Amino acid sequence: MWLVMWSGMEGRRPAVVLPTSTVIVQPSPFCNIDCDYCYLPARLDRTRMSMESVRSIVQFLFGVTEFAPVVDVAWHAGEPLVVPRSFYRAAFAEFARLSDRGVRCVHQFQTNGTLITEAWCEFMREHTMLIGLSIDGPAELHDRHRKDRYGRGTFNRAMAGAKLLAKSGIEFSVTSVLTVDSLMRPDLVCDWIEECGITSIGFNVEEIEGAHLTSTLAGDDATALYRQFFSTLYEFTKTHPEVRIREIVDSRNLLLRPTSCSFVNGENALGSILNFDVNGRVSTFSPELLSIAPTSRYRSFTWAHVTEDDFSTFVERVTGSAFYEDLAVGVAACARECEYFGVCGGGAPGNKFSELGTVTGTETMTCRLRVKTLMDVMAGVLEREGEQSHRHIRGRAPSRQQRVAEPHGRG
Ligand code: SF4
Asked: What positions does the domain Radical SAM core occupy (predicted)?
């Protein structure tokens, strides 16, 4: 966790560049399936990144001011397995040159699983990759939204990929998108996790972002459903401690961390995440910004090109942009007004822009669910279990110790 003070930054542009810990690379925008909530506008575009671009990305990265000791390199923003293994073999060799900067790269695929073969498993094992598999729960939930271009559900093909990974001894983490359908059936999700022996899973919400302009979670009932969903999943983890649910583990860690330990949200911190699109354009902050059309005020969400610009030029352009100025205003407003700032850090600019049309704003549908509701659920269960989890949320009920000190019989 890194410390940056945004509070009171309105009107000023903090030239704080954080160590880079995540690099997102788009090997192709193409995807072989067609989920109805996908935010990518160009998922029929079969353009592939050239090896020349990969070399230029690595060269660009040599100019980065500071890295985290381990850098996650996620091949994403399209289905990564539509690009051949020969490309990745050569690309990984290029990235290995960063060891000269003392950087260890860990490569990741976030895949829909339908193209996994034994040969891919062999490749993933050979390169000790991290694998994220997108499956939305049992067929009844998954196939409603994750369809191919013929309108057929992809559950069986995704699960075949999961089975191949398991047979090859490759650990993977599941990512599920929560729609209102899945929020209404936490029982089905828990049964499916148990039946499939899933040990690591994270839940994204169906976001209003990029090409996806609406969400089934935009209704008033989503908050109560979300609360119920995670309350059920928390109970499930008590009888299934081998299952790691990302939201539960991460929120617990955030709530129970020492008060001296600040939290910075990498999605609104310059340099923490660097994003490269298929054509070599460079962005930072939320990876989804790569796929969002510019406006008259935010004339671009990419600020450099790897063949023409270096990192310091990139930083100069970002810090001189209207987007950066507005981002500081939005994060400062969050710091001032929102009691959850200590566990959120001011939100994701990709969500703010897509939902509010500006990054100067504060609350979004996404943060209402993923931050506020989740933290309320977790703070509640932790406090019932005797933990003082309120300390990073302003305005929450007094701690258990304080309540014990009060005279009995009130309210
Ligand atoms: S929860 Fe929402 S409103 Fe609160 S700090 Fe985060 S983004 Fe801002």
From this structure: 17-246
Give the integer Cα–Cα distance in Å for 32 and 52: 25
Q: Confirm or reject: Cβ of 355 under 6 Å from ligand 1.
A: no
Q: Counting atoms of ligand 1 from 1, which one is nearest the CA of 341?
A: 5
* Mean pLDDT score of the chain: 90
Q: How many CB atoms lie within 10 A of CB 337?
A: 10
CATH class, 20-256 region? alpha beta
User: To the nearest whole percent, how much of the chain has pLDDT over 70?
Assistant: 92
- Per-domain residue ranges for the chain? 20-256
In this structure, which amino acid lies at residue 310? D
How far apart, in whole angstroms, are the C-alpha atoms of residue 284 and residue 271? 6
User: With a 6 A CB cut-off, is 338 part of the ligand 1 pocket?
Assistant: yes
- Whether the per-residue pLDDT at 339 is higher than 90: the answer is yes
Please indicate whether residue 370, judged by its CB atom, sits closer than 6 Å to ligand 1.
Answer: no
CB of 341 shorter than 6 A to ligand 1 = yes
pTM: 0.90
* 6 Cβ inside 6 Å of ligand 1: no
Please state the φ and ψ torsions of residue 110, each to the nearest 5 degrees. Answer: -105, 110
Q: Please name the residue whose Cα sits nearest to atom 7 of ligand 1.
A: 347
pLDDT in tens, 204-243: 999 887 777 888 989 889 999 999 999 999 999 999 999 9
- CA 338–ligand 1 middle distance (angstroms): 6
What's the mean pLDDT in 345-360? 94
Residue 172 bridge partners (DSSP): 131
CA 306 – CA 253 distance, rounded (Å): 37
Query: Which tens digits make up the pLDDT trace of 378-393?
Result: 999 998 988 876 678 8
Question: What end-to-end distance do the CA atoms of the chain give, in Å?
Answer: 39
